[in-house]
Amino acid sequence: MSAAGVSISRVNVSYGKHRVLKDVDLEIAPGEFFAFLGPSGCGKTTLLRLIAGFVQADSGSVRVAGDDISRLPPWRRDVGLVFQNYALWPHMSVRRNVAFGLEERRLPRAEIERRVDGALDVVGLSALGERKPSQLSGGQQQRVALARTLAVEPKVLLLDEPLSNLDAQLRVQVRRELRELQRRLGLTTIFVTHDQEEANTVCDRIAVMSEGVVQQVGTPMALYTRPANLFVAGFLGSANLLEGRVAEGPGARRFAMAGGGSLPVLPSAEVPPGARLVFRPQDACLAEAGDGTDALRGRILDREFLGASVRYTVRCGAVDIAVDAPFRSGDAARETGQEVFVTVPAAALLFVPT
Amino acid sequence: MNRPFTTGQAALALAIAAFLLAFLVVPVGTVIYVAFTEKGTGAFTLVNFADFLRTELFVRSFWNSVYVSGMAVVWASLIAMPLAVLTTRFDFRGAVLIQTLGFLPLIMPPFVGAVAMQMFFGRNGSINLLLDEHFGFKVPFMEGLNGVIFVQALHYFPFILINLSASLRNIDRAMEEAAQNLGCSGWRLLRRIVLPLAMPGYVAGASLVFVKVFDDLATPLLLNVKDMLAPQAYLRVTSIGITDPMGYVIAVVLVVASVLAMWLSALTMKGRDYATTQRGGGGLGRRPLTGWRAGLSYAVVALILALVLAPHLALLLLSLATVWSFAPLPDAYTTAHYARVFGESSVYIKNTLVYASLAGLIDVVLGVGIAYLVLRTKLIAREWLDWAAMAALAIPGLVLGIGYLRTYYGVTLPDGTPLATFWIMIVLALAVRRLPYALRACHAALQQVAVVLEEAAQNLGATPARTVRRIVVPLMAGGILAGFVTSFATAAVELSATLMLVQSDSDAPLAFGLYVFMQSPAGRGAGAALGVIAVVLVALCTWVSHIVLERSQRSKGAV
Predict the structure, then answer these.
(1) Which of B6, B477, B557 sits opposite A134 (nearest CB)?
(2) Is residue B373 a contact partner of residue B504, using CB atoms and an 8 Å limit?
(3) CB atoms < 10 A from the CB of B297, how many?
(4) What is the distance in angstroms between the CA of the first residue and the CA of the last residue of chain A?
(5) Do A184 and A267 fall into the same domain?
C-alpha cells in the first residue's frame, strides 16, 4: 500500500439553509494519522462522509494522491470507511463480509482467499471466519469491520468514531492497536472523534472543528500549548479563561483581572485586542502568602482528588479558577475554605483571541 | 458534482413506468374518459355524475360501502392483533401453526367463504339451528351488511396479521429493553412502545383491508347485498351494457374514495423513520407465558382459530355432502364431487398455478424496483412510480378488466385474435391488481435495511446495482418472500378482473371455475371440492415459504 495524501480545498456543504461545512481547507500528508476533532454537530462526520462520497459538496474539491475524486461515486473512490456501528452484513459470515470488497474488484478466487486470511490475521480473528456478525462481541465486530476495509487495501482509511461503541478498557487497547497497525501499514488514516484524549494519544495531527469551521490544525501538543482561539483552548484539556486587560507599568507588564488582582506578564507576550487570558490548571500554583500584584487572592471552594494530582477550585472574586497541585504519597491536601493565593509563571500565560 | 442517479436506475424507472402506463394508467384512463364523456358524441360532460348524486340508491350504496369497510377493518384488527402479538412476542406453543392458519382465509375467495359461511352462520345455518333448538333465538350474523362485514373481516384480517407480524419482528430488542429499563412493562410497554413502533405495518395492513372490502364485488353479490357500490357498478355494466356510462361513473367514485383512504393512511405515517434494527438483526425478545395469562391467550387464540377455520370446515363438509339443507350437518357423504373436479377441471388448477406464480414474480420484481427507486435514489418523480403502483389498489378488478377489453380489443396478435383475449392479459391484470401488496411488503422490508449497510458495500467498491443484488435483496429476502406469497395467494383466488378477461374455459383459473360452479345449487358440491383443492394447494405454498422465512431468519443469526 503506497500512502496517499488527502487534500480538501474550499469545501462547502449545506443541508437546505443549514451550512454544515464552511470553506474547509485541509492538507493531510501521506501516511499521516489525522483526526477530525469536535463536539457533535460540528461537521466532522459530514466531512468524513464527503471524502467517502456519501455527501455531495456544494463547492470545493477533494483530492486523494493528487487526483480529484469529488466527481467519483462512492464505489470508485477507493477510500476505506469503517462505520461507527460497523455496518456488518448480518446475512454473511465474517469471511464473506471481509471478502466482499475483493469480490467486487473481481479478483481471482485464490487471491481473495489469501487476502481475506491476511486481513483476518492482521486483526487477530482468523479463528472466527465462519461466524455470523451477530455471534461476535462488539470489539470483534469492530475488528471485522476494520479487516473488511483493510482487505481492499484502500488509499486512505477513514474511521468514524471507531472507539465509541467499545467499553473503556477495550478502548485504550484498541486505540493502541490502531496506532500500531497504522504505523505498520503506513496507511493515511483519518479518525473522527469527539474525544480529545483519543485524538491526542493516537494522531499525528488534529483538525479541531466547530460549527462547520476548521478552527485550528496542528499536532496535539501545539494545539494544547498554542490554541488559536478560545474554543480550541477550552476543547483541548481544561483551561482557565480570565477577562481583564494588560497594563503597561513602569518596568513591568501586568494582567489586571476584571474582578481585582493581577499577574505578571512577559514583556515579549503578544496580546491581541480583546484577548482573554488562558492558562492550564497544572501551570498554576497555590501559596499561603502573596500580594495582590503577582497573585490572585481567593478561597478554596472545592477539592477533587485525581490520583496524580488534586484539583482545587479557587474562587477569586467572581471567577472560579482550577488549579492542579501534584500529589505525592504522604502529601497533605489543603482544606476547603482556606484562603490562598494563585500564582502562574509568566511563561505559562497565553492571550487568546475570542 | 455527482449525478443524483445512475443510467441503470433511470432505465429501470423507465421500464417500470412503461409497464404501469400500458397496463394500469391507459386502461383506467379509458374508463375515466368514458365516465366524463357523453355517450355517442364523446363530448365532455358532468351529467353522468349529477345523475349519480340524484339517485338515492347510489348514495345509500356509497355510505353502506364506507360502513362495511370501516367495520371490517375494526373486526379484522381485533382478530389480527392478538395473533400477531402472541406469536411474535411470546414463547407460544404452535406459533408456526397459528401463523400458517392465520393465512388460511386469504387463500379462499371471499365469495366461496360467503357461501360456506351461510351453511354455518346463516339464518338456517348450523349455529342458528342449534341456538333456536336449545335457546329459542337466532343471531343475525349473516343478515344484510352484517354478513358482508363478518365474511370480509374473516377473509382479510391476514393482511393486517402479515404486516403487523413483520413489523413486530423487526423491532430492535433494545427499544423494548430501554422502555423496561425506564420502568415500563406489560400492557403499557405494548401500548407505548411496541405497537407504536409496529404502526407502519399495521397502518399498511389496515388501509389495504379497507380498500379491498370497499372494492369487493363477489361477496356482497353472493350474500345478496346489492345496495353497495361495487355490486351497483357491476349490475349496471352487465345488465345495461358496456357502453352505459353509469357503471363507469360508479367506478370513478370507487376509485376516488379508495385513493382518499390510501392517501390518508400515507399522511399518518409520513416522516416516521422506523428502521430500528441494526448490527446483525435482533428482533424482539420472546418471553414465556405463564398462569392465567397463558390460559386466556390460548382461549382467545382458540376462539379466533375456530372462526377462521369455520368457512373451511363448512367448505370441506359441503364438498363431501350429498345434500345439506336445513340441518346442522349434511345428510350423507360422498367423494363424487372430487372425482368430477379432477376429471374435468384439472386445467383450472394448472392455469391458476401458472398465472399466480407469474403474477407474483412480476410483482416482487416491480416491488423491489420501485421500493428501491423511491427509498434509495434521488430520481426525479420517483414517487410517481410508487403512487401509480399503489393506485392499483383503488382500481376494482372489474374496472381494470373492462379497461383492458376496451383498450386492447383492437390490438391483434399475428394469428388475428385480439390481444385482450390472450391468457397473458389475465396474468398482467393479476400482477397489476396484486402489485400494491408486494410493493408494500418490499417497501417495508427495504425501510428496515439500514442505509449504512449499503454505504459499506459501496465504500468497498460495489456499484449500486451490485449493492442491490448482494446486500439489499438478501436482506430483504423475508419481505420479498412475504410479498410474493401475498401476491400469489391472492392472485390465485382473484375473480373480478378475470371474470371480464377469461374468454375460454381452457384459459380459466380456479376462481373462475369456482364461481361458475357456485352459481347453481347443483354445482355447489363440485365448487366446494375445487375450493378445498385451492385451499390445500395455497396453504402448502404458504407453509413452505414460512419455513424458508424462519430458516433465513435463523441463518442471519437472529437468535
Answers:
(1) B557
(2) no
(3) 16
(4) 43
(5) no
> What number is the average pLDDT over the span B186-194?
76
Same domain, A147 and A288: no
Cβ neighbours of residue A25 closer than 8 Å, sequence gap 6 or more: A8, A9, A10, A11, A214
Contact B345, B523 (CB under 8 A): no
SS3 A246: strand
A235 domain residue, yes or no: no
Taking contacts as CB-CB distances below 8 angstroms, the residues of chain B near A71 are 1-2
Sign of the C-alpha dihedral computed for residues B292, B294, B299 and B303 taken in this order? positive
- Residue A283: inside a domain: yes
Record: contact A132-B557, CB cut-off 8 A: yes
CB contact under 8 A, B460 and A87: no
**Which residues of chain A have a CB within 8 Å of the CB of B1?**
56-57, 70-71
Asked whether residue A234 is assigned to any structural domain, the reply reads no
Distance (Å, whole) CA A273 – CA A289: 32
Determine the residue of chain B that is closest to A56 in CA distance.
B1
Give the orientation angle of helix B110-121 with respect to helix B510-518, to 10 degrees: 40
CA–CA min distance A194, chain B (Å): 20
Over range B251-270, report the average pLDDT. 80
Q: At what angle do helices B423-447 and B144-169 cross, to 10 degrees?
A: 50
Contact check, Cβ <8 Å, B2/A105? no
Beta bridge partners of A279: A240
Domain that holds residue A341: 240-352
Same domain? A348 vs A218 = no
Range A250-266 average pLDDT: 81
One domain, residues A200 and A248: no
Residue A188 has pLDDT above 90, yes or no: yes
CB within 8 Å: A104 and B466: yes
Is B280 close to A132, i.e. CB distance below 8 A? yes
Min distance B248 CA to chain A CA atoms (Å): 45
In chain A, the number of structural domains is: 2
CB B510 within 8 A of CB B530: yes
Report how far residue A311's alpha carbon sits from residue A304's, in angstroms, rounded to the nearest whole number.
5
Residues B284, B89: Cα–Cα separation, whole Å: 7
Identify whether residues A313 and A256 lie together within a single domain. Answer: yes
Q: Do A253 and A155 fall within a single domain? A: no
Task: Supply the pLDDT for residue A292.
Answer: 60
Confidence of residue A65 (pLDDT cuts 50, 70, 90): very high
- Please state, in angstroms and rounded to a whole number, the distance separating the CA atoms of residues A217 and A195: 16
Same-domain check for residues A212 and A291: no
Inter-chain touch B279–A86, beta carbons under 8 Å: yes
Looking at beta carbons, which residues of chain B come within 8 Å of A54? 455, 458
A158, A298: one domain: no
How many helices and strands, by DSSP H and E, does chain B display? Answer: 26, 2
Amino acid at residue number B3: R
pLDDT at B556: 58
Cell output for B421? 383475449
B282, B458, B471 member nearest A75 (Cβ): B458
Does B279 contact A85 at a Cβ distance shorter than 8 Å?
Answer: yes
